[in-house]
Amino acid sequence: MSGWRARLRQWREAVEKRLPRRWSRALAVLLIAIGIVLPFLFPPSSGFMNATIIAITYAVMALGLNVVVGFAGLLDLGYVAFYALGAYTLGWLGSGFFFRLHIHVLVSPVVNSLQGVHLNFILILIAAATICAGAGALIGLPTLRLRGDYIAIVTLAFGEIIGVVAVNGQSVPVGGGMTLTAGNLGISAVDQPYFPGIGSFSLLNLRPWYWLILAILLFVLFVNIRLRDSRLGRAWIALREDEIAAVSMGIPLVKTKLLAYSIGAAFGGMAGAFFGSYYTVVNAAQFQFGFSIFILSMVIIGGLGSIWGAVVGGLALGYINNYLIPDVLNNLPSHFGLNFQLTQVEFGIFGFLLVIMMLLRPQGLIPERRRKLELTAQIAAEDAQLAEVPGTVAGPT
Amino acid sequence: MRTHPLVAIRHYAGRWGLIVALAALPVYYGIQDLVQGYQVYVAGHAVIHHDLTQLGYDVAQGLSNGAIWALIAIGYTLVYGIIELINFAHGDVFMIGSFTSVSLWGVFGLGLTTGTLGLTWGLLATLIITMIVTGSLNVLIERVAYRPLRNAPKLAALITAVGFSFILQNVGLLWRGGSPQSVPDLIHVQQTVFTIGGVPIQRGYILAFGVMIPLVFALGWFISRTRAGRAMRATAQDPEAARLMGINVNATISLTFLLGGMLAGAAGLVYALYETNIWYFQGFKAGLIAFTAAVMGGIGNVRGAVLGGLIIGVIQSLSDARLGPQWTEAVVFGYLIAIMILRPRGLLGEETREAG
User: Fold this and answer.
1) B331 at the A interface (CB within 8 A)?
2) Distance (Å) of CA B50 to CA A71, A118, B35, B60, B196
3) What is the pTM of this model?
4) Domain limits at A186?
5) Do A156 and B165 touch (CB under 8 A)?
6) In this complex, do B155 and A77 lie within 8 Å of one another by their Cβ atoms?
7) Does residue B350 lie in a domain region?
8) Is residue B71 part of a domain?
9) Distance between CA atoms of A128 and A134, rounded to whole angstroms?
10) ipTM score here?
11) Given A92, A331, A397, B184, which residue has the most CB atoms within 10 angstroms?
12) CB A160 within 8 A of CB A289
């Protein structure tokens, strides 16, 4: 077993030696190039393209949640709140929902004549990120004194409150006969992204949507990598590992934690705004607690704290949820004489994945090196330490 | 040692702030009823009343609801007290308890036509079997999902707990379908037994308290008087020291899960009788409410869990009756956040490592 592994490592090192320096950068460029040309291999509005777009959006959300849970170690169970806020930002600023207002900024000539607030999609993305960053800091404030499970509960409570407000928002007036949300009916006829020179997006051709979300993913990835390697990223990890030690070393607790919430929330808001436009409706029924757990599953299955893990986890669960379960395996139980469809029990499947993952491979598919050591090597090190102490009997390991 | 004045201020501000926050709703609606009055229909005519009967009705309703939450909250508090884990699956164990007991009614042939004697024995047997089923289920979950992770970071066990919660929900979904099911109103819960100061006391209230109070006293006796209970307290205080004193820590933790699961099962039966409808999602909401109750009372404290359950029940019923049931969830969670800010250790709790 160990000989086999050692040979594998030798082989990998030999390959790495022959590859040009900074080959990982070359690999990244290659992957991006493949990502850009990928849509030409599929029909412009196939089910697979649709699943790919949704999966990439999930990956963006997973990257955002990874900042909070993975880097800073703050278990956020209310992440769906930022999906909701991002989507509502789009609903408010990119539709005829506020029908008494007439505000148009850089939108297509068709939309220009419609009532309501219509901003360019890029402006809406920025607004969504800003609003969610503020909300993230606000939600983070009451958790500053708390640790661990209590943070999970407070964030969960906020997520649920925002869900309740979204559902009941149609009875909350904001003046002029307009309401806060459209509840379960949904804000519909939201604007599609429009760029001068390119034109409006349409659901008949999914390729522009794909490139847009790919660009968002690359931007978020870039920010994530730079953050991880920055002073702030190291401060998050220090806080995660030992809060008291980190604070006594001069890390500003409040600022560092709130920045984690804000930045994670901003990414979630951008993905939410994209989803709002892509689904063409902002419906309160989308914002369920289960979705927070779904995103959390992506982060955990990918590997807590690992950027590439979050991307892989997001893509994997995105494909499983939107392609494998509904399109490929849905009728699987009926082949065994069972009378249900897999889509009914998808959250059970994700729950099962979470349990199995935690029991068998808690470090995730692509573990962050530090956490992997923590979860695997630490136990071995402790065993070794125990074995050294005279008088204690260490059992065979 | 002198306490820093700021700490002392925070201490009192926290406790009194919490009490003011808890009293806000009943006091506000009480004054509203007295000053503005409320409409009552007497023989088809609208009459304005200026008294506290309506409030009393809401409070009585809330207290009996709260008795159910208290039973669930004890499960949270026991488990948290001993291994500092929020057992997210606990609410769904309660849901399985409801489902099991309704299935058992079918097995025992209990229906609307069953006589009093048959009903009493049938429900007692249902209660005992349901408690055994949910207790064992809870022990099983601990064995499979939490024990292997005892030495892993705490996040890991919390995540498996969430995973198990979803698994149980889907078991419930496949068991009885995705929409709420109404079950036979076996004991005619809304029938008034007697009235206190104009407030009707219904059979359901008596049922809820009649199950909750004996169980809580039995639990209190068990924890404070028996050897196993002493082992539980010792393990909660310091697992390592307890182990050195010869206590089987794993068995004690299993016992804790057994007790918590049994109480959740009892709550499940009472809920099915009381609400006369069940569905797979009931456990999620009940779990969050009960957890709020446990935190409000002071987590790790059984008396606190009961107190918190009753208070949350009243808040919930006031919000249901006055603000509308669609806002209740937000109100309860708003209270949860307020407690977390004002006094994370709750009404009766002591400082924990988690919430300083």
Assistant:
1) no
2) 58, 51, 7, 19, 18
3) 0.84
4) 41-287
5) no
6) no
7) no
8) yes
9) 10
10) 0.82
11) A92
12) yes
